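Support reply, case 0932

Customer input (verbatim):
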Amino acid sequence: MTDRAFMKSFGGLILALVSLTVILFIIAQIVGGKESKSVEATADAKTIAERIKPVGEVSVATAAPGSPVMEAIIPSAIAAGDDKGKKVYDASCAVCHAAGVADAPKLGDKAAWAPRLKAGMDAVYANAIKGKGAMPPKGTYQGPDADVKAAVDYMASKAK
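Our regenerated output:
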């Protein structure tokens, strides 16, 4: 045998192995083939989007004091009566002033209220309406300034 005969045999062997590999690859695709990836990926994407969608939405709107929207939001604070200050306090101010959140003077804490009251009620009203420190203007209450003053009077009366 010469080198030519060897190369001819070796070339035939390589061709046979390549052909066998291609045939096995095709059979593997037919037997173990899966559904289209795009259909599966789309279904997975829809499932994931459904699981992580927001539960609800937060919408912030402003309304004029005395409007039907405002009355629906804070009916007890807008209601007229002798205890308007207490109602406004319960609706808005108590959130911070009942627990002393962010150094807010607690309702009835004479020591915490003394320096504020010493400055005068006009100064206390101004701080309540314009905000001071961590307290936002009107303490997030959306009603008229007169209601805020009534709430300040209620809190001040408990600290005397």
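We compared this against your earlier run and they match. Two observations from our side: The mean pLDDT is 79. Helices lie at 3-32, 37-52, 68-73, 75-78, 84-97, 110-118, 121-130, 145-158. Please reopen the case if you see a mismatch on your end.
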